[in-house]
């Protein structure tokens, strides 16, 4: 089940503080920033530092990172179809948990009513099928399981694997904060921008729903849900949230393949603990303090870029119960100011991929606003990595953002460079 919010539900005067804030609450503080989880072959995690999150009994942040970087094979549940052997294979630039140069493949088709339909992919010389999901995996543990794009599936799209640094803070954003952002956008953009918030299931809390914020389609509402789904669909490892493989061709292990260890945590719990412990991507302080980048920051706001690429959001206060009652926001993540440069809402800027996942059919050509924190660590841009310059990425913004693009075209060459300098400082 998916619900969407199409009318303003909440009105607030500002986005710096959540709607529950009152005089007795302490002032929010900045979330710690840093690329502080270097990927090491020997002693993984030994030189890493967390944001201060308290670890479960018997666990350590270094051990969480070690599990995040562990490479799988068929004996530990890899495949039968998969994209990577470890989380850090796709999330590593410049450190474990960072952004990726990899893209994943999504396909499908429309029915006679124009609605998106997931593909049917035949494998094993036509003897077996994989159905019910839009993703097609690039790799397989044996030739019989290898997927290929059926000719009839004429919707085809590439999507970049996402940065996960700082996603613990994203998980800790209250639903009301995202709904408030969505409610304000039509007003401050004269009706041209209207982000869509969709409510999707929390996989770890049966029957519970929450505003989606993870994945290009906001298909997941909690960090653990996002992780459990990725463990299956990107690596082929079944777990308590996704307990069944998409095919048994070439499978030699029993489900679920991810089971609790000696400290009582499964891999997905270690992944979640690692990501929750990461700091947010830091800015290039030297570039950010230049006159050019400061002018560019004002242009970014004045052009209207910040309507969707929201510069500051405050997380829910410590002790807030989220994710269908399955997680309590800890001190390390609560009442923190983050600068994701995203609203985590779905928008149509005419770069949509035609795929529907958790949302209604009107989300086919909508994508989540790409968070711009850590942008300086990416050589290619947009959801498909098809833009090779920041200017090209800006110029691809049409639809809801078409007026912003037109304003960008009116800038002088020097002003455009100021804006680029600001973006390169993120």
Count of all domains: 1
Low-confidence stretches are 5-21
- Give the total of beta strands: 18
* Mean pLDDT rating: 94
Radius of gyration, CA atoms, in whole angstroms: 21 Å
H/E element sequence: EEHEHEEEEEEEHHEEHHHHEEEEEEHHH
Helix/sheet category: alpha+beta
Q: Strand content of the residues, in percent?
A: 5-15%
Q: Give the overall shape.
A: globular
The biggest beta sheet reads: 4 strands, antiparallel
Chain oligomer state? single chain
Instruction: Determine the N-to-C terminus distance.
Output: 36 Å
The helix fraction, in percent, is: 10-25%
Number of helices: 11
Textual characterization of the structure:
This protein is α+β, with helices and mostly antiparallel strands and 426 residues long. The protein has one domain (3-424). It has helices spanning 61-69, 87-90, 167-171, 175-188, 223-235, 267-277, 285-288, 291-303, 390-395, 402-409, 413-424; strands spanning 3-5, 29-30, 81-82, 103-110, 116-117, 120-123, 128-131, 135-136, 139-140, 155-160, 197-201, 209-211, 313-314, 321-322, 327-328, 336-338, 346-347, 367-368. Strand 11 and strand 12 form a beta hairpin. Helix 1 packs across helix 6 (267-277) and helix 5 packs across helix 6. It is globular, with a radius of gyration of 21 Å. It starts with a strand and ends with a helix.
């Amino acid at each position: 089940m998916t619900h969407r919010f199409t009318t303003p539900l909440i009105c607030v005067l500002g986005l710096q503080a959540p709607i529950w804030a009152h005089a007795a609450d302490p002032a929010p503080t900045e979330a710690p920033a840093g690329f502080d989880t270097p990927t090491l072959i020997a002693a993984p995690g030994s030189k890493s530092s967390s944001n201060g999150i308290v670890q479960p009994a018997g666990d350590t942040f270094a051990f969480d990172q070690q599990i995040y970087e562990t490479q799988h094979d068929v004996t530990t549940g890899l495949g039968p179809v998969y994209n990577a052997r470890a989380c850090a294979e796709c999330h590593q630039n410049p450190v474990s948990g960072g952004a990726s140069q990899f893209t994943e493949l999504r396909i499908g088709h429309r029915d006679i009513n124009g609605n998106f339909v997931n593909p049917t992919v035949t494998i094993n010389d036509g003897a077996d099928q994989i159905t019910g999901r839009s993703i097609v995996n690039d790799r397989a543990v044996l030739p019989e399981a290898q997927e290929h794009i059926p000719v009839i599936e004429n919707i085809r799209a590439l999507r970049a694997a996402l940065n996960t640094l700082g996603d613990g803070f994203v998980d800790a954003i209250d639903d009301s904060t995202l709904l408030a952002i969505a409610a304000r956008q039509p007003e401050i953009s004269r009706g041209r921008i209207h982000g869509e918030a969709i409510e999707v299931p929390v996989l770890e809390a049966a029957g519970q729903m929450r505003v989606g914020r993870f994945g290009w389609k906001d298909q997941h509402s909690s960090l653990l849900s996002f992780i459990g789904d990725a463990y299956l669909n990107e690596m082929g490892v079944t777990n308590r949230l996704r307990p069944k493989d998409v095919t048994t061709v070439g499978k030699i292990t029993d489900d679920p393949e991810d089971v609790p260890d000696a400290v009582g945590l499964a891999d997905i719990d270690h992944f979640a603990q690692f990501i929750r412990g990461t700091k947010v991507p830091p800015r290039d302080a030297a570039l950010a303090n230049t006159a050019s980048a400061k002018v560019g920051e004002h242009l970014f706001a004045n052009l209207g870029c910040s309507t969707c690429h929201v510069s500051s959001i405050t997380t829910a206060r410590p002790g807030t119960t989220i994710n269908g009652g399955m997680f309590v926001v800890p001190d390390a993540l609560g009442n923190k100011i983050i600068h994701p440069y995203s609203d985590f809402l779905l928008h149509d800027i005419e770069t949509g991929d035609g795929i529907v996942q958790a949302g209604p059919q009107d989300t086919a050509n909508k994508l989540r606003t790409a968070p711009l924190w850590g942008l300086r660590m990416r050589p290619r841009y947009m959801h498909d990595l098809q833009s090779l310059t920041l200017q090209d990425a800006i110029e691809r913004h049409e639809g809801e953002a078409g007026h912003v693009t037109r304003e960008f075209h009116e800038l002088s060459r020097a002003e455009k460079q100021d804006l680029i300098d600001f973006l390169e400082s993120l």
